[in-house]
Structure formats: C-alpha cells, structure tokens
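input
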Amino acid sequence: MKLDGKVALITGAGTGIGAAIAKRFVTDGAKICITGRRQQMLDEVARSLPAGTVAACAGDVTKLEDVRRIVDGALAFGGKLDVLVNNAAIDPGGTTVVDIDPELWHSVLETNVTGPMYMMKAAIPHMTKGGGGSIINIASLGGLRCLPGMPAYCTSKAALIMLTQQVALDFGPSKIRCNVVCPGGTRTAMLEKSLSPLADVLGTDLDGVFKCIASMVPLRRTANPDEITGICSYLASDDSTFMTGSVLLLDGGAAIVDVAGAAVSNAGVRWGV
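output
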C-alpha cells in the first residue's frame, strides 16, 4: 500500500493504459479521480473499483474550463492533490507533413501537448500549497524514435518529453517532481484501431500484426497495459522522491535495436557468419 494516503488525478482513464493505472493506484492505496471525454467509460472503470476510492469527472483536456473543473473535482473528492498522471492522447497516423490535414495536426498537438500543459497549469498551484507532488506524463517511444506516417504524434510526444523536463526544472524548488514514461508498443484498444488496416495488407489478423511489429523487439512481444503501471506507482510514491526530469523507457528493449542488425538476428544468423 505504498500510495496509502495519496490522492491522484488520472487523465485518459476510461480505457487502456489510463484505466490500468487507475486500478493499480487504488490497489496500492490511493484515492483517485479519473477523467476522460466519455462518461460511460469512466463509470465502467469506477464500478470495477471499491466504493469510495474513485470519483469520475468527464471532460476535455484541451478546454481550460474543463481542466479547471476537473482539478476542482479532484480536490473536492480527495481534499488535496498529490499526483497527476497525464495520459490522455490520440494517435492518428497514416500520413506525412505534405498530406496531413492542418486541423488534424492541431488536434493532435492540442490533445497530446496542450492538454498536459493545461492540466499542469491548473494542478501545480494546488500541489505546491500542499507541500509538493508528483507529475507523471505518459509519452511514447515515438517521442524518441520516428514512426512512419505519424509526424503529428511523434512530434507531440517529443514535445511532451521536453515539457516534462521544463516543468521539472522550473518547479523542483517547489517540491514538484515531473517525470515522463515512454511506453513502446502496448496492446490497447487505441493501438489496435491504429494497426487494424495493416491486417489486410499483411494478410493476417490483429494477432498477426502485433506479432509482426514485435518480431524485432528484444523481448519479442508488445506490452499489456498492466505492465506500464508499476513504474507509474513507483513515481507516484515516496520511493522516488529524488527522481525528477527522468525519461523512462518501457519498450521491451526496442530503443536499443539497430534495425539492420535486428533483421539479421531475426533471420537466425550472426554478423560475419
């Protein structure tokens, strides 16, 4: 129960990684406020958790008035705010800077960068008054490595990494810690939707698509959402009180791979053999 007594606010908590973090935080002793754009999804997550441990407040992180209402709701529920997890994101792809619709570009940047900025803008003053806190931003391996046809997503996640470090620098004296977690391929409904067009191209099903994209990852698989939650619980806890500005990869080793070398290894041979 290393989060006993903590109050956390988690965005994008209706599905996927956000819902998994919500459940892990409650298991570890926290009270949580969960938010997302769809009240029905939030209510489903809330019903899966013990009564009194969770409040659900629907809203859009790209709208500052919604953000302020969400933060006020978390404070009303928990009496304070110790932890903020910025997980809400969208990941449309399949285009380039030449072809992308400017409205789509702005939508991705607003959700994935401006949204977390608004949440931190609203939450940090309350965390400071409470003596400090921990902010956990969920970026992506795509913020450090390029993904084909995803300029807006990769740019947004790279920006979130830098924003994390800027906040860590500016608010460290106020005892606000800010770290960023960068998952690799994680099997969520959002990623399944993004990858589903590949099934026809590859002549397989979704399981085959995920097997294909994991074939050159050292662990040879994608992650489950639950596997992203442990590091988030650690960052939310007092075990990580001297950690801020860190960029933490949970990618099955994908970032260490040279694609040419991985192709050779995947073929079952070694260099020079």
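quick obs: The beta strands are 7-10, 31-34, 54-56, 83-86, 133-138, 176-183, 247-250.
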